[in-house]
Structure formats: structure tokens, C-alpha cells
Amino acid sequence: MTLLLRGLLGLTRIAPALPRHLALRAHQRMDAAPERFLERLGRASLARPEGRLIWVHAASVGEVVAARDLGQDLAREAGATLLFTTSTQGGAGAVPKGVLHQFAPIDTVDAVRGFLDHWRPDLGIFVEADLWPRVLLEAKGRGVRLALVNARASRTRRRAPRSMAALLSRFDVVTAQDAVVERELRDLGIARAQAVGDLRAAAEPPGADPDALAALTDTITGRPVWAAVSTHPADEEAVASAHCAVMAAHQGALLLWAPRHPARAEAVAGTLKGIRVTRRSLGELPASNTDVHLVDTLGETGLLFRLAPLTFLGGGLGPEGGHNPWEPARLGSAVLSGPGVANHRDGFRQLTAAGAARIVESGAELGLTVADLLGSADLETMRAAAARIAAEGSGARARTLELLHPLLAGAGKRA
């Protein structure tokens, strides 16, 4: 064990109040239920079902989306209970209905041991990152089989290679999103690392209500349409100005606009001076003279990705880190984003390299790009590339399951 790891473990042993305080502040900031903070201290709020239990740790929304189908497939095949832990409230909200959820324990002795004593997992699956020394060492010491899936490029591995190698050596299975990450892991001595593809590309795309899809399709057929999805305040002015440019270039152009948070709809409407707007929350459909249809409802991004051949994903022109490009890509919608895509860097790298996505730096560039692409052969080429590369990634889940099956078969059956 490296000096850095010994120091971290020692610090959390002799001064557990500090991580507890920091965790409490984070829990409060994310507006999570106050009573559920005890879960972070290793005090379970749910009973453990009898039989085998598969534990998946996914830090936040993106990691949950990447692993939820994998976890459910594995649990169903094994007849096991599935437990997800997350670090964030957003991640908790993305856990499928019917699946157990707890907030992950902080990396102190009492919290980690309390969590493991109660849940007694047979298999622990960590998604992409968020690796904590005591959790891994305690779980491994109890004979829990461990897997790291969908590993991505990591600055931490480059900054502290010996410490990360010591942690990664605890995993029985390590899968990487691509060959670049596989090589990075193997260079650290993790010979078992295998590139199997990106689980985010393999995740099922968001669904859409068939009736709503049919109704909107009838009202917008024949019009130049694009979508702006999961936008944040930093994106709003850029999208509004971009659509003005698009309307000048394409008669009858329609923007389907879904803010990340529907409560932003009023502020968004305020940026659309002189533009005809309809709102989905009011039960309105776009009229023939509607310029912007505000989709200020939850859970309908799948509808927009199916309707729009071109989607601008928000979060890339501000500090949010971008949003998952695989969702529109899997539904054949070409992707645009601002440059700030740190949360989905690998997906954007793959999609831009394949010609399925483009990065824009400003509202002016967004407007020019959308205006140039709508109705063009270039857009159809981008859409075909998006569907093709997303289909290529769809095998990642099956390949990962194949590697995980032996771990579960070898895990002890526990009551």
C-alpha cells in the first residue's frame, strides 16, 4: 500500500468528524431528504432481503444510466436482489423503480463497516470511477468479488498512478470504455483490463409516449425542425439567438426546446421576444405559425430525439459539463454541444470522430451550424453516423455481462 493511501486511511480513522461534516454539507446542498443522511454513515434505511445481493455503486446520473440495464440484467439472471448506491440526489432519482437504493457510505471505519455488515453484498460493481480506499479494502477483505466497469480516462490515475494501481488491483474484473483507457490501465499493471465499449452507448434510449409522438408528428411534418434539450441558463441566450438565425434561413423553422429544469420555462420564454411560443405544460401543440414549442415537462426527451433530426444538448456553454450524447445518437439525431463536455468527454470524442456530433463555441456559431445543416445531405450523413456508432456500442452490455457471470457464479450464497 502506498504512503498516500496509508495517509488517507489514517486521516479518516483519527478524524472521522471532518468527512462527516463535509458529507452533511453536500447532502444538504443537493436537497436530499434529511433523514437519509444516516445512510451515508452506514446506517441502512431498508431491510436486506434474503438471498444473494448485487451491489452497484454509481456516483451520479450518468453512471446510473450507464449501469442500470446491466445491473438489472445480471440480477434477473442470477435471481439476486439489486442494490444501487449513489453519491448524489440526481443519481438517486435515476435508479429504476423497484430497485433498492441507498446513499453511499462515507469512507470512514464505522460507515463502511456498518454498510457492509448490513448489506453483505456477494458482488460489488463500481461504475467508471468514485473509488474509495476503505470501501474497496474492507469489501475485498470480506471476500466480496469486485468489478470496475466502464472505466474512463482519469486525471487521478495520471496524478497518483501508484496509489490508483494499488486500488485497481483489488478488482477481479476491469472493463474499459475503449482501447485508449485499456492501455492506460495496463500501463499501471492491471493486466486484466479489457476494452468492451462504452456502457452509456449501450443504455436503452429514453422512451416516448406513442400518442404524444403521433400528435406532434402530425403537427410538424414538413417543417424544418431542430431541438435544444437539457439547456441551462448559460445556454439560453445562445439558443434564442441561434433560432433567430435559423428562422431567417429557413421559412417555417421550428425549435423544440426542453430546459433541463422545467421551472426555467418562464425565464426561457422571456428571452424569446417577438417569437411565437407554445407550451407543452399547458397542453398546447405547435401551430403552423409557432416558432418555438417549449417542452416544459419532465421525462419527454425521448420524444424530442425522435422528432428532431438535429439536437443541441445544453450544459456545454456553461459549467455543467454537458449531457449524455448517446441518447439522441441512439435515436438517429445528430448532436451539437458547447465545448464544456467534461462529464461526457469520451462519448463526444467518439461521436465527433465518427462525424455524428459537432462542437460549437457560441450562439452565433450554433445558429450558423443549424442553418447550414437543416435539410442538407451533411445532416443525413451525421444522422447515419450517429445511428451506426451507437449501434456499434450496443454490444458493450453483453460483453460486460459475459465477464461478470463467473464472478457471481463464484460468489458465496448468503442469507
UniProtKB/TrEMBL annotation:
It catalyses: lipid IVA (E. coli) + CMP-3-deoxy-beta-D-manno-octulosonate = alpha-Kdo-(2->6)-lipid IVA (E. coli) + CMP + H(+). Its main location: membrane. Keywords: Cell membrane, Glycosyltransferase, Lipopolysaccharide biosynthesis, Membrane, Transferase. The keyword Glycosyltransferase applies. Signal peptide: none annotated. One of its GO terms (cellular component) is plasma membrane. The active site is at residue 63. It is found in: Cell membrane. Residues 36-201 form the 3-deoxy-D-manno-octulosonic-acid transferase N-terminal domain. Its EC number is 2.4.99.12. GO terms for molecular function: Kdo transferase activity. GO terms for biological process: lipid A biosynthetic process; lipopolysaccharide core region biosynthetic process. The keyword Transferase applies. Pathway: Bacterial outer membrane biogenesis; LPS core biosynthesis. Involved in lipopolysaccharide (LPS) biosynthesis. Catalyzes the transfer of 3-deoxy-D-manno-octulosonate (Kdo) residue(s) from CMP-Kdo to lipid IV(A), the tetraacyldisaccharide-1,4'-bisphosphate precursor of lipid A. Belongs to the glycosyltransferase group 1 family. This is 3-deoxy-D-manno-octulosonic acid transferase. It comes from uncultured Rubellimicrobium sp. The lineage of its organism: Bacteria, Pseudomonadati, Pseudomonadota, Alphaproteobacteria, Rhodobacterales.
